[in-house]
Design goal:
alpha/beta, Aminopeptidase, elongated, eight-stranded mixed sheet, Alpha-Beta Plaits, binds zinc ion, 10 helices, about 400 residues, about 35% helix
């Protein structure tokens, strides 16, 4: 792996690690990435980027032109942390109670910034490089807001690229897949409206508890009976709330579910069936189901051409044994899907190592013991530099 790291990146690695750990110690939640955004913008400005701020609040876009070529590509990093109490015990652990970089966005930001610096110092490409530092990747759709606020109209580009670290996958390895790579993620809120009463007189009430139980069971048939067995689909009910006392039938019960699919058609079908089943079950029991459906993140679809390019560059650089060219789809969802709805491109995985930092026991992202592996930084930064140079060709390094 060592030979894969570019010399300029290697020289900047101590600084990159220090930056990553500084970001880690000062995590900021979605749309509150004020200090992080300031720091990103100041660095880009220093290195000669044209810096634009304010998209989606704390978003930063940096533009760097070299030569007069027409090609324009965008690279994206996410900046937000999670509402988790850190439990790593690391010297640079979060200084802010209840907030933690538990998804490695500190690492994504540090790696892209370092690539930005090398590309500004050395060039080696011909065209316009566009760097997108987005807020609120976790749940709140910072990428969607940037798109809605005119990201691609103001800063047009031919293709957009993003990466994410993955614990359990070795450092120096890259994984990707053309087509649908990550499922959509939608949320359903079902409110069962009944008529409360005395638990000893159920005939004088309309019981939303029994109806909610029927709805929970009926929804299990959506995936098993209404979707093609070859299609991935998930309906999981994660919350059910209603009532307080054993002898009181409540007025209402609320259910919350997460719904995922890898094809837009399946996503639509799930919505239809969930709504129909919940309403019909409630009706047969004399209550009413109010179904509130939140379309959240769409299916993340990697473009075939650009995925082929990333695959080719990664294989040429790291060797075929370090690239998983046709990974199985992941089950998590990604805000980057909104960018890929607008522009073709590729989202790929970089290994975060087989052993996590948590007392060598290893753990996944979103775990209080997780830490981004600093050994990944030079790999990710080098890959960004190589990708830009390969895709936008141009003059060799001076
Ligand atoms: Zn996350
Ligand atoms: Zn993440």
């Amino acid at each position: 792996m060592a030979q894969a790291v570019l010399p300029a990146v290697r020289a900047l690695t101590p600084e990159m690690v220090a930056l990553r750990q500084r970001l880690h110690a000062h995590p900021e939640l979605a749309y509150e990435e004020f200090a992080t955004s300031d720091q990103v913008a100041a660095c880009l400005q220093d290195w000669g980027y044209e810096v634009h701020r304010g998209l989606a609040g704390t978003g930063v876009v940096g533009l760097l032109r070299r030569g007069d070529g027409p090609r324009r590509i965008a690279l994206r990093a996410d900046m937000d942390a999670l509402p988790i109490q850190e439990a790593t015990g690391l010297p640079y652990a979060s200084r802010i109670p209840g907030r933690m970089h538990a998804c490695g966005h500190d690492g994504h930001t540090a790696a892209l910034l370092t690539a930005a610096r090398v590309l500004a110092d050395e060039g080696g490409f011909d065209g316009t490089l566009q760097l997108i530092f987005q807020p609120a990747e976790e749940s709140l759709g910072g990428a969607r807001r940037m798109v809605e606020e005119g990201l691609f109209e103001r800063f047009p580009c031919d293709a957009v690229f993003g990466l994410h670290n993955m614990p359990g996958f070795p450092v120096g390895h890259i994984g990707l897949r053309a087509g649908a790579f990550m499922p959509s993620s939608d949320t359903v809120h079902i409110i069962v409206h009944g008529r409360g009463g005395h638990g000893a007189a159920p005939h004088d009430s309309a019981d939303p508890v029994v109806a909610a139980a029927h709805i929970v069971l009926a929804l299990q048939t959506v995936v098993s009976r209404n979707t093609d067995p070859r299609d991935m689909a998930v309906v999981s009910i994660g919350a059910i709330h209603g009532g307080d006392a054993p002898n009181v039938i409540p007025d209402r019960v609320e259910l919350k579910a997460t719904v995922r699919a890898l094809r837009p058609e399946v996503r639509q079908r799930l919505r239809e069936r969930i709504t129909e089943l919940a309403e019909a079950q409630a009706r047969t029991l004399g209550v009413r189901a109010e179904v509130i459906y939140h379309w959240r993140y769409p299916v993340l679809v990697n473009d075939a051409h650009w995925t082929g390019e990333v695959r080719r560059i990664a294989t040429g650089w790291l060797g075929a044994d370090h690239v998983m060219p046709d990974m199985a789809p992941l089950t998590g969802s990604e805000d980057f899907a909104f960018l890929l709805e607008q522009r073709p491109g590729c989202y790929f995985i970089v290994g975060n190592g087989l052993i996590g930092a948590y007392s060598q026991g290893g753990c996944m992202i979103h775990n209080p013991g997780y830490d981004f592996n600093d050994a990944v930084l030079p790999v990710a930064a080098s890959f960004w530099v190589r990708l830009v140079r390969e895709v936008m060709g141009g003059p060799a390094r001076p």
